[in-house]
Write a structure and sequence with these properties.
Elements lengths: L1 E4 L1 H8 L4 H8 L1 H12 L3 H12 L7 H16 L3 E24 L3 E3 L1 E3 L11 E7 L6 H7 L7 E3 L10 H7 L2 H25 L5 H8 L4 E4 L21 E4 L1 H12 L5 E23 L4 E11 L9 H21 L5 E8 L7 H9 L1 H4 L2 E6 L7 E5 L6 H9 L4 H4 L3 E4 L10 H6 L4 E6 L4 H5 L12 H20 L32 E2 L3
Parallel strand pairs: 2-16, 5-6, 6-7, 7-8, 10-11, 10-12, 12-15, 13-14
Antiparallel strand pairs: 1-14, 2-3, 2-9, 4-8, 5-9, 9-11, 13-15
Bound molecules: zinc ion.
Zinc ion (ZN) binds next to helix 11.
């Protein structure tokens, strides 16, 4: 793999009086894009409306639909044609109030929330003694023990030995103490896994077994290895409540059970089943004036998990594309090629919205100049990969040469790179052979602190970095649209994986799920 730093370009752009640098400064469209992004930014307002007012955007929820309608109305207010395009149906569900209280041995309100698609409790909820999983001899022994869960609320996650992230230990602990904790944690993790295996179930199927055995509630805790962060996904139960509880409260309840105190908790978790609802992608476009049937596509998935408000996954990618389109329409209203934006639904359940778009629009997919996706948080873009396209080196570098030096100096490129593995929607286009590229951001502790967590909220957005990405994206779209040549989508021969010794293969076509969550 050949990694090139675009040092040459930085040197050129920093050399005053250089012809190339002068030429770059002279392009009034680029100057206007930068000026508009910096002096008339709409990012903070758009972010507030999308994240604070509309909220998280789980597929099948009314909030997802509100977001689609809001985006179409925004585009129309900027004179950009936009529509919601149906691609499937999903189980409709709406989150309600979650309230979890310890009622014995003392009263304390606990931090936690119902997991997605969990059915509602009654207004009074369930109140019961809490129990933990025992040390299991084997599956027969467990089948006998499981009768004990009748009428109880069961804790199904491991008890973390520490609520402090490793970086905090590293800073303050003695070496011996840090090593000791890590060793204990490793042993406990291993023992927990083996114990679950001994039950004859997996960590997912055991929840069904407990529900069938008469448990009245399930409490889980998926710590995200940072202060105050848990990952929030969907419930494993069919009828009883399943709540995700933050580490601090979860470990306290666990210790109370271990020490024979027999704590009781009450769970009220209201939600609404909304039957089968349609699912959409929001599509908007600025029609090309010379080559309307060739496309530059900008996109970011629109949906999110709902433990927070989906601010960095993928509110920030969404904001980049919205704002880039607004600015392009204002400063470059007659692009040579059509500039299309896709705000995909249901990326989180398997790239479903983007996969459906690729399937439904072969006429667009075969005429793509370039696709740009942003989906890993709020940070400045620091990496662009050629995604396995042999000649991407030429055209991407040419387009990047128009980007201001302060933005480009942070970007590492990797040509020809490797195809996108399936972590985000550019894979849907990559599979179909369209030159599609991810704009990869600086982490800002994305994986632990915001990705799919209860803390993925507006306050984590670094707006200056997002503005940087708006300028980059708008200029890339402009340059790709203006390019005198159609891009090549010739693929490289993929290298051998040094670990397995086998040749890496192109990802295979996958079928989007157009009928989700209903069985
Ligand atoms: Zn995402």
């Amino acid at each position: 793999m050949k990694i090139k730093f675009i040092l040459v370009l930085i040197v050129i752009s920093l050399t005053s009086g250089n012809l190339f640098a002068q030429e770059k400064e002279k392009d009034p469209i680029i100057e206007n894009i930068i000026k508009e992004a910096n002096e008339n930014s709409q990012l903070e307002l758009l972010g507030h409306q999308l994240l604070d007012v509309i909220g998280p955007r789980l597929v099948g929820t009314p909030q997802m639909q509100d977001a689609h309608n809001w985006a179409v109305a925004k585009y129309k207010s900027w004179n950009i044609s936009a529509k919601n395009e149906k691609w499937g149906e999903w189980r409709g569900w709406e989150r309600g109030i979650t309230h979890i209280d310890m009622v014995y041995p003392r009263v304390q309100t606990l931090d936690g929330t119902q997991l997605a698609w969990n059915p509602s409790t009654s207004d009074k909820g369930v109140k019961a003694e809490v129990i933990i999983l025992p040390t299991v001899k084997d599956s027969i022994w467990f089948q006998n023990w499981i009768k004990n869960v009748k009428g109880k609320i069961v804790l199904v996650s491991r008890k973390e030995p520490t609520g402090r992230p490793d970086y905090n230990w590293e800073k303050f602990a003695t070496d011996e103490s840090f090593e000791k904790m890590k060793k204990e944690r490793e042993e406990q993790t291993k023992a927990w896994k083996e114990n679950i295996e001994s039950t004859g179930y997996t960590s997912r199927t055991i929840i069904t077994a407990l529900e069938e055995a008469g448990a009245v509630g399930i409490v889980s805790s998926y710590w995200s290895k940072g202060f105050g962060v848990n990952k929030i996904f969907s419930a494993g139960t069919k009828k009883i409540p399943q709540v995700e509880m933050e580490l601090e409260d979860y470990t306290m309840i666990y210790r109370l059970v271990e020490n024979g105190v027999k704590p009781e908790i009450q769970i009220v978790a209201k939600s609404k089943e909304l039957g089968r609802v349609p699912t959409f992608n929001t599509i908007a476009e600025i029609k090309g004036s010379e080559k309307p049937n060739e496309y530059v596509i900008l996109f970011a998935h629109f949906d999110s998990w709902d433990g927070g408000t989906g601010a960095t996954d993928n509110g920030t990618g969404t904001l980049v594309m919205l704002e880039a389109m607004r600015i392009l329409k204002k400063m470059y209203p007659n692009p040579k090629r059509t500039i299309l934006v896709g705000h995909w639904g249901s990326e989180e359940q398997g790239l479903n919205g983007s996969g459906a778009f690729v399937q439904d629009h072969p006429e667009i997919v075969k005429n793509i100049q370039a696709v740009f996706n942003q989906d890993n948080g709020t940070g400045r873009v620091v990496k662009i990969s050629g995604a396995g396209y042999l000649n991407s080196y030429e055209y991407i570098n040419q387009w990047l040469s128009a980007v201001p030096g302060n933005i480009i100096k942070q970007i590492k490129t990797d040509f020809p790179g490797l195809p996108s593995g399936g972590g985000s929607d550019n894979a849907s286009f990559n599979i179909a052979g369209a030159p599609s590229f991810g704009l990869y951001s600086l982490s800002w502790d994305y994986w632990n602190y915001t990705w799919h967590t209860n803390r993925d909220t507006y306050d984590k957005i670094i707006f200056d970095d997002v503005r940087n990405n708006v300028i980059l994206t708008a200029i890339l779209a402009y340059m790709a649209s203006e390019d005198g040549n159609k891009t090549s989508n010739e693929r490289r021969i993929l290298p051998f994986n040094p670990e397995t010794g086998e040749q890496i293969t192109w990802p295979k076509q996958r079928t989007p799920n157009r009928d989700g969550g209903l069985d």
